[in-house]
Structures are given as C-alpha cells and as structure tokens.
Amino acid sequence: MAEPGQQDGAAIEVRGLTKSYGGVHAVRGIDLTVERGHIFALLGPNGAGKTTTVEILEGYRSRDGGTVQVLGYDPGRQRQRLKRQIGIVLSPAGWIPT
Hints:
This protein has helices at 50-57, 79-83; strands at residues 10-21, 24-35, 65-70. The protein is α+β, with helices and mostly antiparallel strands. The chain has one domain: Rossmann fold. It has a three-stranded antiparallel β-sheet with strand order 2-1-3, covered by helices on one side. The mean pLDDT is 87.
C-alpha cells in the first residue's frame, strides 16, 4: 500500500471490507483496487452496500472489518488528512439536473 500523499501506488485499496447493521450484513468481504488515473463505478441494486462502501472510503462511516487505504490514508484513522485530498458528491440514482 502507498504511503500517505505519495503519487504512486493505487488510489484505493480495500481488502476484506465488512460492515453490518445489527443482523444485516451491508458489506461482506469486499476486495478491490482502483489504480490512480482510472475511473471506477460501483453499481448494484438498492441495499447492495454501495453507499455504505463509499461512506467507509471517505471516512464518514466506520467499518467492522478489513483494511482500507485511500491515497495511502486509512479513512477510519486519518479522516481529516484524507479530506484535504478528496471531494465526494453522492447523487441519488436517476437524479437529473434541470
């Protein structure tokens, strides 16, 4: 995994990501790598864990298990440093600006 702030290495590295709400498993063991400069889309039906995953990647929501690195930062432990490096806008499916 890349050191924080370095320009090399993957932009996002996730291994074994899990998150549950009570007895509901929202995210079960996601592994993914997104290289710098690549475009990645996370698609799935309602309730598939997309928003939960993105919120964990940005440090807004805590994970139950696994490892996460975004630009070399652990969003769960280095959220303030990561926030200086990223911008995220979540948009509801089907939303079209008028």
